[in-house]
Task: structure prediction
Amino acid sequence: MAEKIKLGVYGAGRGEYLVASAELNGFELTAICDYSEPLLRRAKRKYADRKIAFYSDYDDFLSHDFDAVIVANYATEHADAAIKAMASGRHVMSECMAMFTMAEGVRLVEAVERYGKVYFFAENYPFMRQNLEMARLYQSGDLGRFLYGEGEYIHPSTVDQRVFLVSGPKHWRSWLPVTYYCTHSMGPVMLITGTTPVQVNGLIVPHDFDDAGNGPGSIKIDDCMSILMCTMDNGALAKIMPCAKLKDHGNRCRICCNKGSMEWGQGHDGILRVHREPFDCPEGTARNSYYHPTWPEGFEIAGSQGHGGADYFTTHYFAQAIREGGKPKIDVYMATAMTAIGIQGYKSALQGGAPMEVPDFRKQEVRERYRHDEWNPDPARHRKGYPLSSILGKIEISEESLALFTAKRKAYEEGL
Result:
């Protein structure tokens, strides 16, 4: 049996939920770091019978003995944490997003190249059963060339559900523009078709003040929905809907090719539909086939893990890259392109949908254009020329709304 890969987890919320999948794939948890005392308290209770070290300081955490780090801290702080981990000699699996600014993307790419450690981007939605099957079908060539795709991630929530996810008005989920959390939508399109976005046009539906759910806890952003229309490197178009709050919870992926199409999503109960026109339908093949895809042979255990089994595959491919070398399944260049559509898409939306480049950071001359681009919507870093979190400008939080949310969050943390 292969030697265990010693693992540190940065982020006792999302990161801790990945431990079971990681251990199924040959990792051994040795340390957990988080600056949230309630989350650390919960983790200490869970692992009370194991020799796990706990840290509240990331630099101290990196002094511990492990080979690899799962970076699952705040989504807007992944890049710097990943760079520090690689500089300390660790392999990194980074949660979404890959970076928060375009300049961070340049630094991240150059750190991967400089330190030579594995960087795997933990975008898990491409590894849902339906998306794995769509990748298999597309890569067989039977459906022809990719022309148009759709990726949707729709996740409405109540105030009580947001209490679990948001610590308060300074938390990134309270102010991050709706276009930014885009990799769950773009990831499947890229992994199924092998294409990469090169341009994006963004549009946003403004904050819905008539939605009672947009009261406590969802205060500063246009969280109804946005559209990112992406031009891919083969000339295809992909319509991407990042983390929308429409009342239509679920995911969708649709891939249209020049010999047929396939899709699954809301209302399909996990059923994949594969369609061919009569004139493109090989003899003995149904025009429309509907079925529940199964797990690829040998991966049935994935079904027991989070996000419909998709969490298993991120840690599987991370371990594979560490043990076998070679190009990670989702490498740093894919990760930065997948993330950049949200940043550039927000720039586009603020300019009425104007086209924006999605840079290829493999190219040195492209990196130089973005090396100092720290444009971002973080209220704590706001300065002249930087955007606010809504296309409407500043959305105020009422004292009543904030007090209600704060009380609910306090009760939640006390129960951890």
